[in-house]
């Protein structure tokens, strides 16, 4: 498979998939995810940083499917927890990737930490792998803090307990359009967006 108008996002996370489709809509390219390719291989995330994991996923899928592949690795870093859950954000409470259990664990670990010491940030590393070319990586963050309890019903992951400093509300209280303007993933994509034309043209060999 090689199509200069198609970009594969190397994720099976429906929440992330929806965000990427919305983000890439202005660029006139077809966005597909691993949800469209049930036989795609699972890439083991053995990296020690967000960037290393993003590169592993992007290059693995790009090589297998012979097309541009973009992968993200993202998570929540809490200062009072020495950067945890970090790269283990999705599985913080166990291998089953349970959002509610992950939030419960974070809130329990911070139960005695006062509001002024609950600073945190979402961090995203994006890697774009292009057949025959060097992989491009960019990173973005969104600053905030951890709330005392869940607020809002939008988004996914840790969004209900993450207070967005820039907006003054929980991430889960933002609409998808608002989130896609200020999120860690959006900030990383803004850095990548200037290269999207070059990436697509470069793949039209």
UniProtKB/TrEMBL annotation:
Cofactor note: Binds 1 Mg(2+) ion per subunit.
Keywords associated with the record: Hydrolase, Magnesium, Metal-binding, Nucleotide metabolism, Nucleotide-binding
Function per UniProt: Pyrophosphatase that catalyzes the hydrolysis of nucleoside triphosphates to their monophosphate derivatives, with a high preference for the non-canonical purine nucleotides XTP (xanthosine triphosphate), dITP (deoxyinosine triphosphate) and ITP. Seems to function as a house-cleaning enzyme that removes non-canonical purine nucleotides from the nucleotide pool, thus preventing their incorporation into DNA/RNA and avoiding chromosomal lesions.
Protein's organism: Falsibacillus pallidus
Annotated substrate binding sites: 11-16, 74, 156-159, 179, 184-185
InterPro entries: dITP/XTP_pyrophosphatase, ITPase-like_fam, RdgB/HAM1
Pfam families: Ham1p_like
Protein name in UniProt: dITP/XTP pyrophosphatase
Membrane-crossing segments per the record: none
Any one GO MF annotation of this record: ribonucleoside triphosphate phosphatase activity
GO CC field: cytosol
């Amino acid at each position: 498979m090689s199509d200069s108008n198609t970009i594969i996002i190397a994720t099976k996370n429906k929440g992330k998939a929806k965000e990427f489709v919305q983000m890439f809509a202005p660029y006139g390219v077809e966005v597909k995810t691993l949800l469209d390719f049930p036989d795609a291989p699972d890439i083991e995330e053995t990296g020690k940083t967000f960037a290393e994991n993003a590169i592993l996923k992007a290059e693995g899928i790009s090589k297998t499917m012979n097309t541009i592949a973009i992968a993200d690795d993202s998570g929540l870093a809490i200062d009072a927890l020495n950067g945890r859950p970090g790269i283990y954000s999705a599985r913080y409470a166990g291998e089953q990737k349970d959002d509610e259990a992950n939030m419960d664990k974070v809130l329990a670990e911070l139960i005695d930490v006062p509001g002024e010491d609950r600073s945190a940030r979402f961090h995203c590393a994006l890697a774009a792998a292009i057949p025959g070319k060097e992989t491009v990586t960019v990173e973005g963050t969104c600053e905030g803090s951890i709330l005392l309890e869940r607020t809002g019903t939008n988004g996914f992951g840790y969004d209900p307990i993450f207070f967005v400093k820039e907006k003054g509300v929980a991430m889960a209280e933002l609409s998808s359009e608002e989130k896609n303007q200020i999120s860690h993933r959006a900030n990383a994509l803004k850095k990548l967006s200037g290269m999207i034309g070059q990436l697509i043209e470069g793949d039209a060999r």
